[in-house]
Amino acid sequence: MNDYIETARRVIRTEIRGLDLLASGLGPEFLAAVETILGSTGRVIVSGMGKSGHVGRKIAATLASTGTPAQFVHPAEASHGDLGMVTRADVALVLSNSGETPELADLIAHTRRFQIPLIGVASRPNSTLLRQSDVALVLPAAEEACGNGIVPTTSTTMTLALGDALAIALMEHREFTPEHFRTFHPGGKLGALLSKVGDLMHADMPLVDENAPMTDALLVISQKGYGVTGVTDGSGHLIGIITDGDLRRHMQGLLDHSAAEVMTPQPRVITPDALAEAALAEMQDRKITCLFAVENGTPRGILHIHDCLRAGLV
To answer: Would the pTM count as exceeding 0.70?
Structure first.
């Protein structure tokens, strides 16, 4: 079993050495690749065969989710009609460890025929792919982790890292924000963490006027089902909240009071554009179950801790 662990460590260390070589070798060509993509009005068409294709799909997905429109086109399918997806407005990012993958020939020829910028990624500087490319990104000569140079391991890791580097460089140039990211990634844990209070809150709020008798307040609490009601003044501003704790404290003669006499003034609130994660943290810290979302003093919605749980925030 220790032999297996040593093998795993050897593989990882070998790939780390490859990544170090890749990082130290970045230069003007990488800058040219970024500027070529930024100068495009279309998409980045990513293509590759075999393992390079699998890596290419991930690079295309990362680009697309970080503000750079991208699409993966399989080179074999490209030769059977999918070349129509590649337009003059696009940039082609073509991956091939050897740079001699025969299935890429038609795609490369298409980019040359229609003056479509071609960024090639390969490990052989004199390969067909890199000789035909407008921008040639050469992968450093690094040992494959299999030890015999047969299994694509270090080379695919370097290619993947290079794609990530391109995506993040483009993302930072575009000043891509978490809100932009959520637009392209509304689902899953990441989407949940970037949800705004306004995305989850309920507009149908439990509210009563400050002069309302407690009979009305109790009715609203019962009907809305949040266990609380907000209290507003004549201008519609939220000035307090009535919780079960307030009800217990005023149990003696409760129905003889007005809402303003029972409420807790200046309740904790949050803005609709705040992250829902911040609202959840506030509720957990204060040991409360609801927060009113308030804008310029006016309540816009109510958020229950269960809304955060349903959204997958925890």
So the answer is: no
